[in-house]
Amino acid sequence: MWMPMLGMTALPHLGGLYGGYITRKEVKTWYPTLQKPSWRPPNVAFPIVWTCLYTGMGYGSYLVWKELGGFTEDALVPLGLYGLQLALNWAWTPIFFGAHKLKWAFIEIVLLTGTVGATMVSWYAISRTATLLMMPYLSWLCLATSLNYCIWRDNPEEKED
C-alpha cells in the first residue's frame, strides 16, 4: 500500500518541476522588472514553501483516496475537485511567468483558491487530517492571490494592437 501513497504524494511535484522550469529564467529577467509590494516573500522562499505544500496536499489526497477505498464513485467529487485544483495550480505559472498575463493569472488564482476551499469542504467529512494538511496551502494561496493582485495593479499591461 506504500506505492499509492508515494505516487499520490509525489504527483503534485510534477507540476512544480514544470513550473520551476518556466520560472527559472523569468525570475532572473522579467520578474525583477516588476513593481512588487514590500511584504512579498523573498524568491528563495518559494521553492521551499511549494515543496512542503505539494507534499502535504499530495499526502492528503492519498488519505482521502484510502479512506474511500480508491477511485470509487464516492471519490468522484472529492478527488475530482482535488484534480481540478491541481490542474489550476499547474496552470498559474505558465500564465503568470510564461505568458506574463498578470490579469489572467489573478483571475486564475482566484478560481484556484475557491477550488481549494471547495476541495477542503468535500474532504472534511472523509478525513479531517487531509483537510488540515490543505490549510497551509489555502493560507499561502491567500497571500499569493494578494501578491498577484498587487503586481497586476502596480504593473499595467501594455495594450495589444
Key descriptive features of the protein:
single chain, 161 residues, mainly alpha
Outline the secondary-structure elements.
Layout: H1 2-26, H2 45-67, H3 76-98, H4 102-124, H5 128-154
Helix pairs in contact: 1-2, 1-3, 2-5, 3-4, 4-5
Task: Give a quick rundown of the structure.
The chain has helices at 2-26, 45-67, 76-98, 102-124, 128-154.
Written account of the structure:
- This protein has 5 helices and no strands.
- The longest helix is centred in the C-terminal third of the chain and has 27 residues, at 128-154.
- With 161 residues, the chain is an all-alpha fold.
- The protein has helices at 2-26, 45-67, 76-98, 102-124, 128-154.
- The mean pLDDT is 95.
- The protein is elongated, with a radius of gyration of 17 Å.
Overall pLDDT level: 95
Question: What is the number of beta strands?
Answer: 0
Number of helices: 5
What percentage of the residues does DSSP assign to strands (E)? under 5%
Low-confidence stretches: none
Order of helices and strands: HHHHH
**Main sheet summary:** none
Helix content: over 70%
Q: Name the overall outline.
A: elongated
**Helix-strand category:** mainly alpha
State Rg: 17 Å
Alpha-carbon distance between the two ends: 56 Å
